[in-house]
Each structure stands twice: as C-alpha cells, then as structure tokens.
Amino acid sequence: MQIQGYFDLRFETVAQGFAALFDDPQQRGAALCIRIGGETVVDVWAGVADKDGHEAWHTDTIANLFSCTKPFAAVTALQLVEEGRLELDAPIARIWPEFAAAGKGQITLRQLLCHRAGLPAIRENLPGEALYDWQAMTSALANEAPWWDPRSGVHGYAPITYGWLIGEPIRRADRREPGVSVAQRVSRPLGLDFHIGLDDAEFHRVAHISRSKGNLGDAAAQRLIHVTMSDPHALATRAFTNPPSIMTSTNKPEWRRMQQLAANGHGNARSLAGFYAALLDGRLLVPELLNEMTREHSVGEDRTLLTSTRFGLGCMLDQPRVANATYGLGPKSFGHPGAGGSCGFADPERELAFGFVTNSLGPYVLMDPRAQKLARLAGECLG
Q1: In the predicted model, is pLDDT for residue 282 greater than 80?
Q2: Which of 85, 115, 321, 342 has the smallest C-beta neighbourhood within 10 Å, fewest atoms?
Q3: Span 225-246, pLDDT tens digits
Q4: Membrane-spanning residues where (predicted)?
C-alpha cells in the first residue's frame, strides 16, 4: 500500500509497519501521527474513506473516534475545577440538584470521572431517539439508582453514560453546550481538527465506519459479546444497548451533530497526538491537576467490560502485564482507546504523543493490536 504524508527516517520501520496494516484486505483507511518532545516525527495516512472504496483517505479526513473523546471531556472538566466552577470532591448535586435522586446525593465528579459512581447503564428501556435528546438522557440518569455503592471502590466503565454524566456538569458550570466548551478550551487554542458536535459543512470529510468480519478478537472480547448476546438485563448489555440506537448510529447525521462527550468526537490522528503533546508540555492543565488525572483511581476487574481496567480521571492507565490493556510503551502511559481500534495516548518518559485513527473497526474491548504494534515499533526506534 502506498502511504501518504511524512515520517522522519529514524521512524521508517513505523511507517513500514503502518503500510503493512493494508496487507489485510479488510483494512480500509487509517492515519497515524507521533510527536516526540513536541516535534512531529510521523504523520502518515492511507487507504479509503468512503463506504464504497472510491474516495481516498486525505490529509484532512476525519473519523468518529469513539471513546478517544473521553479525555477531552475530562480535561475540560478539570479546567473548570482549576477555575473553581466545579469541585472534584463535592457532590455533583450541588450544581445538578436533580442528580441527588435515588441515593446519589453524595456522588462526586471524581467518582464519575474514574467510573466508580455506579452509573454505567440505565435500567429503564429507552427509545432509540432518546440518544439524541439531551434532556431525556440527563433526566434518565438523574433518576437512575447506582448499580453498586459508589463508596465501595468497585468500578465499571461507563461507555456512553459518561457523556451526559460529565457533560451536564460542564454545561451548567461553563454555561454553554458541552461540545462548545471542549472546542473553546481545547480544540481551538491548540489548533486541533477535533469536534464534538460536527457542523454539516464538515460531513464530506468524515470517513465511513465499518466493521471487519471473521475476527472474533481475544478472550475479553468474546466474553463481553457472549454476555451482551445472551443476557438482555446484564449491566454490560444495558451499557452498550440502551438506548438501542447506540450501536447503529455511527454513520448517521444526527450522531455526528450531537454533542456526546463519551463517544462521538470526530478528528484525525494529528488531533490526538496534538492533544497529548499539549498535556505533556503543560498547555492544558496545571501540574497538580495533570497528576490527579493520571494517577491511579480505579484498578481491577471492570463490572462493565468484564476484564481488568485501570483508570485515572477520564483516562485509561497502562497495565504493562495485561495484554489487552497496555499501550505498548512505558508503564506511565495514559490515554484512551476508542471502540474498534482508534487510540490516543502519551508516554511521559519518552515525551511521546501518539494518535492512530481507523475506519475499519476491530473486535477488541480495550487496545487494538494494530495500535499496540505501531507504538512498540516507535519505542524500538527510540531505543
């Protein structure tokens, strides 16, 4: 496969590894960007962006990044903490009074950010259209009882509900729509091509997302799919399928337009690498809050994902000895994978910021082997 873009010759093996992804006929399109100490050393892309395979992936192609979105929301919330408009350890009900219902009066922003609040899913069946109704979703979550005691230390990833649980406090504290807050505080100051709530005028640049076939993934993926297919009332099933439109909306205009801070950020590999480079060099958070974001808050068996996860505040921390939960570089790495393969992270020890974006969704629960391999190759180049 002929790749486009730029790479420093020191990272030629990374570029070769990226090109080799396209030996798989199901690999449709992708982009990779790596920055070291703020300097871009790899910025490449290849493949096709449209549904029918006629439109090439271009330098300005963007894609739905799914949960790679979550750290952008967390940084926005932490900036509001720095400004005194939100508090990490005060009850969220102070700024969102309705949230106190069903025994949630003492749940804090910290617990929401590290997935310990017990709100990864909604029990009540919601119609598909509720996904696009901010008031409907925040009301449902305000009325929901936790699935476990938030004080217990148990954690369970909130794949979609995180978007409203973090977005509503941001909206109330910043007095603007949550996607606008992220744009004003993160994307625009850094010049990132990253959007939560995409303008219709940008739709022509968005890669069509499709799933690869025939690959069942690893044991964690198979365990999760078994539960979601066999037990409609399980926490994991509710988390991913209520509202039922969650799993079928990726390419729809209404999905692109909404401001869902958990899963519908649209951007490119450059925007992910730029975001993590800015975290490393102190342009987004003061050191105290960056330390809070990246220190361990939750670790162990995840009630939702049914595999071991380790979280800071709104970011996934590396688990070097867990095959599906390591970024493939240093043990202090932090970031977030997105459903199907896209991934952004930082390795502070190497001053490395990494962004990988694909429109060919793999079946893995946490880290996709494609991103892991490219990260390891980068590490080898650095010695």
Answers
A1: yes
A2: 321
A3: 898 889 999 999 999 999 999 8
A4: none
In this prediction, residues 85-102 reach a mean pLDDT of 98
- Residue 214 pLDDT > 80, yes or no? no
The CATH homologous superfamily for domain 4-72+181-382 is DD-peptidase/beta-lactamase superfamily (3.40.710.10)
Specify whether the CB–CB gap between 91 and 106 falls below 8 A. yes
Rounded CA-CA distance 293/78 in Å is 8
For the chain, domain boundaries: 4-72+181-382
pLDDT of residue 251: 95
Nearest to 258 by CA among 348, 375, 164, 371: 164
What global pTM score does this model have?
Answer: 0.97
How far are the Cα atoms of 231, 276, 362 from residue 91, in angstroms, in the given order?
33, 29, 38
Q: Is the pLDDT of residue 222 over 80?
A: yes
Average pLDDT over residues 305-326: 96
The three-state DSSP-derived secondary structure of the chain is CCCEEEECHHHHHHHHHHHHHHHCCCCCEEEEEEEECCEEEEEEEEEECCCCCCCECCCCCEEECEHHHHHHHHHHHHHHHHCCCCCCCCEHHHCCHHHHHHHCCCCEHHHHHCCCCCCCCCCCCCCHHHHHCHHHHHHHHHHCCCCCCCCCCCCCCCCCCHHHHHHHHHHHHHCCCHHHHHHHHHHHHHCCCCEECCCHHHHHHECCCEECCCCCCCHHHHHHHHHHHHCCCCHHHHHHHCCHHHHHCCCCHHHHHCCCCCCEEEECHHHHHHHHHHHHCCCCCCHHHHHHHHCCCEEEECCCCCCEEEECCCCEECCCCCHHHCCCCCCCCEEEECCCCCEEEEEHHHCEEEEEEECEECCCCCCCHHHHHHHHHHHHHHC
Residues 104 and 99: their CA atoms lie apart, in Å, by 6
